[in-house]
Design a protein that fits this description.
Mean pLDDT: 86
Structural class: alpha+beta
Distance between the termini: 67 Å
Helix content: 25-40%
Number of strands: 26
Low-confidence stretches: 238-256
Strand content: 15-25%
Largest sheet: 7 strands, antiparallel
CATH architecture of the largest domain: 2-Layer Sandwich
CATH superfamily of the largest domain: DNA ligase/mRNA capping enzyme
Length: about 700
């Protein structure tokens, strides 16, 4: 098969990029991209090599285990070859693994229903431990799978790794050295206090700590370990299994004498004195594996160590031996990764999306990719300045990030993968969906563009979608598709039209049955009762988001007082500066908006905000700003807890901010808070404040 020139070039660039990041990760412990972004580069290369086998060279990174050991350490050749697992990223991938296992076992064993062990995949640094007569004589890194680095003295400082086993056996044990999340935070607080750069993540500091020339530095880092595998160097006496009623078994053929399954191996490791992660399970089939993966996918943040997936192994040792290995991986095991929040993909186009205030947001049209558990094909680029900062072009390979339900962001561009055919995006002077002559303009003093013609069809549709959304009027069943139908049939054109809908108006809509109509009308009726804050947020007043709407509601108390407020009165309100105050006053000065405001007030009933809790004094007169993804709470939940305890939530960090509640992947607010000396707390500290 003739390989297209652009495919050959893409494969070459992927190999170079992967090798670069492999060296940064495995050898230098200074990764520039996330593990999950790296995984998608490997996956793309594997797919190209599968489609075009001629591309699969012996030195391809898809065939490598780790990377070359550093020269500063003594090199040691492993007694037992070290491997890395292939990956599965979703349920179809793990079921395909199960089918391969059964297919390969049929030749020797016939039809089988293979049992599996499931173990948490700890995100740390692999360590290979050699014991002779039960005594620890050597510890090494994985290296390239054949040769590793001698880190014996450093490993001996890790309290959880035994120097002497409970039995006088000669074995090679494999495990993962890691730093707990709590220790990571503690180390970073000390560094921050000393004016030093903080560490990026626990895995990096664990790897760097284990590869110190001074073992006292390693000792100070309080590393921990879990051990999960072993091979006997010499046939041992049969070991009694741990647990009530455990009995020894006669020696069996094979490398692991007296141990017949992965389940037994984990029990024996624990009996020998090794730290074994307690959350492993034996599953009777692949469906049990999937249930285990689903359970841990939702509770991964609750453990005090980083977990990036589940390791799945065929339980029986004779099955493992029969399945064997590929060039770099065992056929009897696989790493079942949790949904990635960062992946790589290609920008196929850049287009504009009209917001509800007429602002135009550039959106990247992506080659579809699975991220955070769902397939996406769009990512926000925010504004023209962000496009320039990232230097993002049509055709670029990019890293995108998705957390929760937020539309993905482009994190960075992998410029080494450019071919020279990429196109620079320039904002147009006209955009057809803006209405009128379609002209657009850059807003003075801002990085955003907007339609010159106000209230275009697309803009109004966005306003209506926002108005009925969960965080505003929360009208269940009235989604974007139905809004589009209602507008196209000229049934609604503004907010108050929603509350005038009747059954007869809706019966003419295609594929919209009576039951659906009844449910919608009931949802609309329920939505008539709304807090003043949600009502204000639903109006799409420029510069007024959820937090500002809540501040306005608490300060003015009634719709009438808000509508009659002067610009000077608005400016005095904390969080409302001159720009926001002018925007609010301009909105209420518009005759059309005045009429809309009055019509809406006739259709709805303003209800009281949720009362302040009895613990209000705990956060009284305290202002919080939130950033990043919290382990257990959504931002909305955390914000509500702050407000009902008497505190305030602000959208921007200032000198008046008391606390920054920070989760993972914090943004610019984190840097701003540090500059201003604002106290930064995590979710646990926040919950402790509330008791």
């Amino acid at each position: 098969m003739s390989i297209p020139k652009e495919i050959k070039e893409r494969a070459r660039k992927l190999r170079d990029e992967i090798n670069k990041h492999r060296h940064l990760y495995h050898t230098l412990d200074k990764p520039e991209i996330s593990d999950t972004a790296y995984d998608t580069l490997i996956l793309e290369l594997e797919k190209l090599e599968e489609e075009y086998p001629e591309l699969a060279t012996p030195d391809s990174p898809t065939n490598k285990v780790g990377d070359t050991p550093l020269d500063k350490f003594e090199k040691v050749e492993h007694e037992v070859a070290q491997w890395s697992f292939d990956d599965a990223f979703d349920e179809s991938g793990i079921r395909a693994f199960d089918e391969r296992v059964k297919k390969n076992l049929r030749t020797e064993f016939g039809e089988v229903e293979s049992e599996y062990t499931t173990e948490l995949k700890i995100d740390g640094l692999k360590v290979v431990l050699t014991y002779e007569g039960g005594k620890l004589v050597q510890a090494a890194t994985r290296g390239d799978g054949r040769v590793g680095e001698n880190v014996t003295q450093n490993v001996k400082t890790i309290k959880s790794i035994p120097h002497q086993l409970m039995e006088s056996v000669s074995i090679v044990a494999e495990g993962e050295v890691y730093m707990s999340k709590s220790e990571f935070e503690k180390q970073n607080k000390v560094r921050e206090k000393d004016g030093l750069d903080i560490y990026a993540n626990p895995r990096n500091i664990a790897a760097g700590s284990l590869r110190q020339l001074d073992s006292n530095i390693t000792r100070s880092r309080n590393l921990q370990a879990f051990v999960y595998d072993m091979s006997f160097l010499t046939p041992p006496q049969p070991l009694p299994l741990a647990g009530e009623g455990g009995t020894s078994s006669p020696p069996a053929k094979g490398e692991l004498e007296g141990v017949y399954s992965q389940e037994e191996e984990l029990i024996v490791l624990e009996k020998l004195g090794f730290p074994v992660n307690p959350h492993w399970e034996k599953e009777s089939d692949i469906e049990g594996v999937i249930k285990y993966w689903q359970k841990w996918k939702s509770r991964v943040e609750k453990e005090d160590y980083q977990i990036d997936g589940v390791v799945v192994k065929v339980n029986r040792k004779d099955y493992q031996e029969a399945l064997g290995y590929t060039g770099k991986s065992p056929r009897f095991g696989i790493a079942f990764k949790f949904p990635a929040e960062q992946v790589t993909t290609v920008v196929e186009d850049i287009t504009l999306q009209i917001g509800r205030t007429g602002v135009l947001t550039p959106v990247a049209i992506l080659r579809p990719v699975l991220v955070a558990g769902s397939t996406v094909s769009r990512a926000t680029l925010h504004n023209e300045d962000e496009i320039r900062r990232l230097d993002i072009r049509i055709g670029d390979t990019v890293i995108i990030q998705k957390a929760g339900d937020v539309i993905p962001d482009v994190v960075s561009v992998l410029t080494n993968l450019r071919t020279g055919k990429e196109k620079i995006f320039k904002f147009p002077t006209h955009f057809p969906l803006c209405g009128g002559d379609g002209r657009i303009e850059r807003i003075p003093g801002q990085s955003a563009y907007r339609c010159v013609t106000k209230n275009s069809y697309a803009q109004q549709k966005r306003k209506l979608e926002h108005f009925v959304s969960r965080k505003v009027f929360n009208i269940d069943g009235l989604g974007p598709k139905l809004i589009a139908q209602l507008m196209e049939h000229e049934i609604i054109s503004n907010f108050d039209d929603i509350f005038t809908l009747k059954k007869g108006d809706l019966l003419s809509l295609p594929r919209f049955g009576e039951k659906s109509i009844e449910n919608l009308l009931q949802a609309i009726e329920s939505a008539r009762n709304v807090t003043l804050a949600r009502f204000i947020a639903g109006l799409s007043i420029p510069q007024v988001g959820e937090e500002t709407a809540r501040d306005l509601a608490e300060h003015f108390g009634t719709p009438k007082q808000l509508a009659e407020a002067t610009e000077a009165e608005l400016t005095q309100l904390e969080g409302v500066g001159p720009v926001v105050a002018k925007s609010i006053k301009d909105w209420f000065s518009d005759e059309e908006n005045k009429h809309l405001y009055g019509r809406l007030l006739k259709q709805i009933r303003i209800k009281a905000n949720k009362p302040i809790s009895k613990q209000a004094n705990k956060l009284k007169d305290t202002t919080f700003v939130l950033t990043g993804t919290l382990p257990a709470l959504s931002r909305e939940e955390a914000s509500e807890m702050i407000r009902t305890s008497g505190g305030k939530v602000s959208s921007a960090v200032s000198k008046n901010t008391d606390y920054l509640l920070a989760g993972t992947e914090p943004g610019e607010k984190f840097t701003k808070a540090r500059e201003l000396g604002v106290k930064i707390i995590n979710e646990k500290e926040f919950l402790d404040m509330l008791g």
